[in-house]
Structures are given as structure tokens and as C-alpha cells.
Task: structure prediction
Amino acid sequence: MDIFSNLSLGFTVALSMQNLMLCFIGCLVGTLIGVLPGVGPIATIAMLLPLTFKVDPTGALIMLAGIYYGAQYGGSTTAILINIPGEATSVVTALDGHAMAKKGRAGVALGIAAIGSFIAGTIATLAIALLGKPLTGLALLFGPAEYFALMILGLALAVALARGPALKAIIMIVLGVLLSTVGTDLDTGEERLTLGLVGLSDGIDFATIAMGIFGLAEILKNIEAPEARDVVKGSIGRLLPSWLDFRRALKPVLRGTLLGSGLGILPGNGAVIAPFASYTLEKKLSKNPSEFGNGAIEGVAGPESANNAAAQTAFIPLLTLGIPPNAVMALMIGAMTIHGIIPGPLVMTKSPDLFWGMIASMWIGNLMLVVINLPLIGIWVRLLKVPYRLMYPAILLFCAIGIYSINNNPGDVYVTAFFGLLGYLFYKLGFEPAPMLLGFVLGKLLEQKLRQALTLADGDMLAVIGRPTAAVFLVAALIVIAVSLSPTITRKRDEVLAE
Amino acid sequence: MRTNMGTETPSAVRSPSDLAGSLFLFFVAGIALWQADGLTFGTLEAVGPGFMPISLAVLLAGLAALLFVSSLRRNGEALAAWSLRPLVFVLGAFIVFGLALRPLGLSVAGPLAVILAGFASNETRFFETAAFGIAMTAACIGLFKYALNLPIPLAPWLLGY
Result:
């Protein structure tokens, strides 16, 4: 079978000594930074990008994927041990995970999170291997008009999935796309919206936005309103779940995996909703829903698996279509372009070793997380006892060195500070920043494809949006927007997100 | 801000936070339009560099207007207070780091940024933070400069690099 030969090629690449080492270091450092409260995967990856500069492209991506999974797992660890979710996707884990920790079952919660994630990762890796090829084929059939329409659909989905009023989410997306036009126009070489600043003529580096909004603004929020850190006292208990725990968790893990894998593929950050959806589903299916919130193992196992499966299948739109479905994948694009790889359907045919090597290393990375993190939990607990007054200056220093090192440019440090301020302003005004990031991420590609499509159609807008596939995407986008603007749906979604 | 008491002179603004948000967005759209002034808009056959920025700025202004209207009609949040101290010292520390790195090197910029950032919180103890800053900088020099070989200036005034 094709898939097996491809996967075996992947494992040959991923199992080389060097790549195993890189995967290991990535997982370890990713977890180390991801464990810090208030530092989610996005800030972690932006901070650690420079670590990968000296490695070959395949190794760099393998290491980044390791950092990503490590950061995710670190976030779950923080959520379970001190009840501070590092990012939106581990909010759910904190509910029952921390309740379990309070009952002296922190070890089991962390263990089932790791094991569930591993099972989810295994299945999702297979899904990528299976779907990669056909989707790449599909991607080659897409013209600029279809790409444009698909991205519009992705942005519409981002509106539907964002928290808060839909109008504000739409505003943030438009703002993000507007920010993406800053810099030199690719067709004419004219400078746009640079305010006359030389530093902006190359455009805004995505890492500066990500770091400003998810690194600096987060520090500002935490100093202002310190979150009560409820460090688990006493023992963590056993790490390996008992057979009974495992049997209770198995079905939630599988359902979460299925749900997460499906949602993760959606362009428009479907991954963010996966753990919420899984939690709601498990609560509905449970015989004793009252256990949820009081330490139900299903409430940790399901969402964690959904989260990890979605994190993994989110690579599908990136690797096959070249469209990043969320901010993390946008950072991956940044890393790929630094190494001269243009993400998209050609990666698979042009550099199969990179494509399959990375997919295989995803699986290895998941396995490594189980193996390295369970023994290291004691260290994470001690790290979490460091007071925030020391932690935040350290985070700030890492951010500053990281952002400088990406382009060796002090200008990027100032731009990041500006986005820190902007992030704080949005927080105060009640705007959710995630849709802006997605708008920014897709903005350049959106403009490029629209311009290409219009040129191909001799300026006939109707011909562009009238192509059958494009029309389907656009109509779907319209429906999604209309639905998310309707008040009843908004209320229902907020209920799901609030649970 | 006066609250709506249900009398004949109700406050016109129901959501001061959204009102402020819409004003900020008008400001952003204004800057974008001003900056895009010299750019060619082009036609649909030949889209110019100004096409996206101008369309998006106009769209943004339109959405801001919707938010403005909704802030007058729907009850929402009051303006949230800003804490200036963290803002000044955290962002200040970051900018000072950027300014100091090239001329003074990481050996100075690192502890400087950590100490300055420390002033953002009233829980900070000065000497503890200073010692911590020096230790963290040493660790970062070991990691980024020696282990990863990244071209970060260390102490140009002393070592020449």
C-alpha cells in the first residue's frame, strides 16, 4: 500500500538520531515554556522559533512540531495542577482536571491526559496520512477563485467560533486583513500604510503580533488581576490510571478523537471548539452528569483527546492547501518560509521526506510526551511554585530575546511592544484578539488570490464568484455569518463555551 | 458617565466601552485611508495596490459605525480602568531592551529589562529581582549565544561583540 511505504519513509526520516534528538528537545523545551502560567502555545512557538534556525528544514519542522505538542501538554499540566488554563483550549481541562487534583488524583489526570492525547495523536496521524494525498490532489484542482472563497469560508467560521458578539469578531478579522496589507505591495513594489517607517516596508512579522498579543498583553493582564494560583498540595498520587479509570476513559477518548479530527480540518480554527464540544458531549452521554466539574475522568480524557486530535489535523489544510487554519499554523508557515519551503500541495511531491518525516515525527512526539513528561511532573510542580513576580520578568526576557533573534532586528522588539499595548487595549474594550490574528494570517494570501482571480476573469467579479466550487464556499460562508449574527444561536454557543 | 435612570433625560450612551471601541476603529480606518491616499485603487481588470487597503478601511469604518449605533442602543460595559504602572514598566522594559541590545549587549540589556519589568508589580523585591535578572541573563547567554550560536551582541563595549 502506498500509505505504508510513505509512512515507512517518514519513520526512516523521523527515527534518525538527529531528528529524534530534535523532537525530544522540542517536546521538552515546549513543555517547559508551556507550563509557565499565561504562556500558551502561540507565545511559546514565537519565543522558541530561533531555536530551530541552525537545523535543516526537516529537522526544524520536526522540532517545531515537538515544541507545539509540548506547549499544549504544558498548558494542560498548568490547568490541572494550578487551575490556570494557559489558553482557551485547556479551559475545559481545568474544570475536572483540577477537581481531580484536589482529590489527590492529579497524577491520574495528567496520566490520562497524556495517554488520551497519545491515542488521539495516533489516530489523527493516520488520518493525515490517509487524507493527505487525496486532499493534495483536490488542492491542485483549485484555482485562485476557489482558494479565495475557501479562505472567506474559513474567516466566516472563525466569526462563528469566536467568543463575544459576532460584530466584534468581524471587525477584528477586517482589522487583521487590513494589517496584513502593511508593507511593500508584491505586484507593484509600492509601499503601503507604512507610516513612513522603514521598519514596516517588509510588512509586519506575524511573530511580533503573536508575541505582543499573547505574550506581553497576557503579562499585563496577569499583573493587573493576578489569578489565584491554587497549587495542589500534598501528593500527586499515582500516575498510571487504574484499569477501571482506563475503561471509563476509553470511549470518551475515542469520541473526542473523532470530534477533534473533524473539527481540526476546518479552516478557521475549528480546533478551538473541539474540547468544548467534547466536554458537552460527554456530559450529555454520562449516566451521572453531576460528576462533571467534581473530577470526572471523562471530562479530562475526552476534551484532551479532542484537543490533541484537532491540533494534529490542523496540519492538513496547511500541508495540502498551504492555508494556515490558525495562528500556530501561521507560525509554522513562517518557519517553513525561513527555510525556503513554500507550504502547499507541492510540498508532498517535491519533498516527500520532509512531509512524511514530519507526519511520522508527530506520532513520535506524542509518544515522547507520555514518556518524558510523566516522570518530569515533579519538576513542573516545583516550577509552578515560583512566584509570578519572578516569573513574568523571565517570560519578558525570553520574549525579548526570541523576537530579536528572529530577524536580528531591534525594530521587531518595538513593534512587539506596540502590539502588547494594542492587545491590552482590546482586552479593556472587550475585543477577542484571536480572529484578528487569523485575518492577518490569511490576509496576504486572500489579496493575492483575489487579484489573480480577477485578472484571470478579466475583472468580471461575477465570473469569479460564480465558479461552482467557489460559489458553494461563499454561500456557505454567508450562511455561517447569518447564523452567527442571529441572537438565539449566539446564546446557545455562549452556553457551550461557558460550560 | 451618567446611568440611564429611566427619566426623561436618559444618557444617550448605553455601552461606553463599545462607543470607545468604535471611536478607536474610526481612528484606525482614518489612518489607513490617509496612508493609502497616494495608492492607485485600480479597476477590477487591473487591481491596484490601493484596492485592498482602501476597501478594507471603508469596510472597517462601516462596521465601526454599526458598533457606534449599537453602543447607543444596547446596554453594555462601562469603560474599564487602565492600570498604568504595569503598562509603563512592562512595555518600557521591552523597548529599553531593544534600545540597549545593540550598543550595550545582552549582558547589560538583559538585567536592565528584568529589573525595569520588576517595577510593574508591587510585589517585587528589588534585590531579589536584580539577582534573578543577572542569573537569567547568564542562563540565556549560555543557551542562545553558546548553545545555539545565535548572533546576539553580548558586550560590545567590553568584548567587541
Q: What stands out?
A: Residues 1-9 of chain B have pLDDT under 50 and may be disordered. Chain B has two domains: 16-73, 84-147. Residues 51-73 of chain B form the longest helix (23 residues).
